[in-house]
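Exercise: predict the fold of this chain.
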Amino acid sequence: MAGKRNIAFGFLYLFLTIVLYLARPSEGGVAFESALVQANIDALLNIGAGWLISRLPFVGWVANTVSYLMIAGALLRSGTLCLAAAGLLPPAASIMPVGALIIIAMMLFMGIGYLSLKVVRQ
């Protein structure tokens, strides 16, 4: 279920950012466009992480932790960057490094999960 959650979130986030890119005002600026590119990258990372979570036999708590950290990292990193670039919430850019730290923690948990896999010979 954890991998499916990330895949669904990734596709919805990708769709949302494409719609925001197409509906952007002409004077939106380079900052808003680059924020949307970062959001697209985070959406694709979520899809990839969800695929890995669903394919590898992770322990339940590791899979859920990685899943929630990836979603939170995407929203805090590129979501706040989009809000700040659009001018909706200017101080939101100060929260963005927290999202990057959460994504780094997600990679650490993904590594722990991979190292805890049991090797089965056939």
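Check your answer against the key: The mean pLDDT is 86.
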